[in-house]
Design a protein that fits this description.
245 residues, Rossmann fold, five-stranded parallel beta sheet, 11 helices
Length: 245
């Protein structure tokens, strides 16, 4: 009987742990006075401009929940990688008193290993080990101030959906790291890479390098900003219909 009780207790604990992990990763709805900070690189910096995904998301949230007084802050800087975001986390994120932080980073961490202009200046990308530890460090500090994290996988460097873009293998590796970190930290995962590839498989049958969601293989065009905003809104349980019309 004692052994049965012990086994039952262990099973109950495992079930509770699984339920808690599931709850942590589930999409939570927005609350009154939420303050959302978008942390990232040039994609996010451009996204905070008119027509950008951060701006579109902010406008949709205000339209859906005008009574909640939700604030949106763009914290993207061109060329930045995980170590850069770590260095400015306190200034650009924590001091903004966020309740939600969306981390969309990883393109430069990969691209700077091969980008000709960057390589010519002697700069490099981010090693997988530093990328992983940096994400965990930022998430811990964000959680410590009571904010939750939505962690994104890096999207694309080139829009061919058949795996033939030159950085695809490394992007997949870093996307896997982000997925692993989200799981280990109990953070909400927004798998942008999968969503982008799925979209491109349907809308890029000719395997164009750019022009579907990006204007230059990386930075978003009008459709790309709309698509990304839709994904973010879904992750935050905001009715996507508010972006129509």
């Amino acid at each position: 009987m004692r052994n049965l009780i012990k086994i039952t207790g262990v099973l109950t604990g495992l079930v509770c742990a699984l339920l808690c992990a599931s709850a942590a990763s589930a999409n939570e709805s927005l609350k009154e006075n939420d303050r959302i900070v978008f942390l990232g690189d040039s994609i996010t910096a451009l996204g905070a401009r008119p027509g950008g995904y951060v701006t579109l998301t902010s406008e949709a949230i205000a339209k859906a929940y005008p009574e909640l007084n939700i604030q949106v802050v763009g914290a993207g800087i061109g060329g930045h990688k995980v170590p850069n975001c770590q260095q400015r986390l306190d200034r650009d994120v924590l001091q903004e008193n966020p309740s939600i932080v969306m981390i969309y980073i990883g393109i430069n961490d990969v691209w700077h290993w091969t980008h000709p202009k960057v390589v010519a200046r002697g700069k490099k990308g981010t090693t997988p080990e530093v990328f992983e530890s940096g994400l965990k460090d930022m998430i811990e500090k964000i959680n410590d101030v009571g904010a939750r994290v939505i962690l994104c996988t890096p999207t694309v460097i080139g829009e061919k959906s058949d795996g033939s873009n030159s950085e695809d293998q490394m992007l997949d590796q870093y996307a896997d790291i982000s997925r692993k970190v989200a799981k280990e930290t109990g953070s909400q995962m927004l798998d942008l890479r999968k969503a982008f590839i799925d979209y491109l498989k349907e809308h890029n049958p000719e395997q164009a390098e750019q022009g579907i969601l990006t204007k230059d293989t990386v930075h978003l065009n009008e459709e790309g900003n709309r698509f990304l905003s839709t994904l973010v809104l879904e992750a935050m349980n905001v009715p996507v219909s508010v972006t129509e019309g």
